[in-house]
Amino acid sequence: MAGKPKLHYSRVRGKMESIRWLLAAAGVEFEEEFIETKEDLEKLRSDGVLLFQQVPMVEIDGMKMVQTRAILSYIAAKYNLYGKDLKERAWIDMYVEGTTDLMGMIMQLAFQPADTKEKHLALIIERATKRYFPVYEKALKDHGHDYLVGNKLSWADIHLLEGILMVEECKPDILSAFPLLQAFKGRTSNIPTIKKFLQPGSQRKPPMDEKTLATVRKIYNV
């Protein structure tokens, strides 16, 4: 029997968090080896295990996988969270990419200078309410199903829930104009594997604070 997937990254959300979410939602236990210092990262690089000298890196099924999108696609397909055919996969990809764009804006927030942070936050809220959430609200309304694609839990749903919770950390009432997304959040949050991941003490990581931000800047020269 293959061992648990092993995740190599820092003790922060970053690009690894969506991988943690997807594994957890699939009910897959995983181990984490944290990059605590610049030297830890340099060792991985010098050992030749990082194809493009970058993390995230996930050891799974005998592979040392890099590139976030490739890792997520593999996990989604392996655990039957990637649709039943090419068309469903295309829709999942479109939804995931949209959510990823929004989440990327949120990830950048911690790195914004103080004088631009408020403007960046306002842009996140504007994009969430005008560009991204209306798409998901309409999708749920148009097909009348519980999930975004194929009336079955997929990577798109898991990714969207993660994104919703990230935006709610910026603006807690962000879903007030989106009743179907409110219901979606309630449903998906109560899927047993996801509910477990949302409990205190899980491998879900907290938002970035000043201490972890300083550590990340030091390790990755950002």
Plain-language structure description:
Helix content is 57%, strand content 7%. The mean pLDDT is 94. Helix 1 links the parallel strand 1 and strand 2 (31-34). It has nine helices and four strands. The chain folds into two domains: 6-79 and 198-209, Glutaredoxin, CATH 3.40.30.10; 86-190, Glutathione S-transferase Yfyf (Class Pi), Chain A, domain 2 (Up-down Bundle), CATH 1.20.1050.10. It has a four-stranded mixed β-sheet with strand order 2-1-3-4, with helices on one face. By secondary structure, the chain is α+β, with helices and mostly antiparallel strands. Its EC number is 2.5.1.18. InterPro entries: Glutathione-S-Trfase_C-like (IPR010987), Glutathione-S-Trfase_C_sf (IPR036282), Glutathione_S-Trfase (IPR040079), Glutathione_S-Trfase_N (IPR004045), GST_alpha (IPR003080), GST_C (IPR004046), GST_superfamily (IPR050213), Thioredoxin-like_sf (IPR036249). It holds the Pfam family GST_C_3. Residues 3-83 form the GST N-terminal domain. Keywords: Transferase.
Compose a concise summary of this entry:
This protein has 222 residues and is of the alpha+beta class. The chain is 57% helix and 7% strand.
How does the helix and strand content classify structurally?
alpha+beta
Helix content: 55-70%
Spell out the helices and strands N to C.
EHEHEEHHHHHHH
**Integer average pLDDT:** 94
Strand content: 5-15%
For the largest beta-sheet, the strand count, sense and barrel status come to: 4 strands, mixed
Shape field: globular
Chart the SSEs and their pairings.
Elements: E1 6-9, H1 17-25, E2 31-34, H2 38-46, E3 57-60, E4 63-66, H3 68-78, H4 86-109, H5 114-143, H6 155-170, H7 179-189, H8 192-197, H9 210-220
Parallel strand pairs: 1-2
Antiparallel strand pairs: 1-3, 3-4
Helix pairs in contact: 1-3, 1-6, 4-5, 4-6, 6-7
Family: Belongs to the GST superfamily. Alpha family.
EC number: 2.5.1.18
Keywords: Transferase
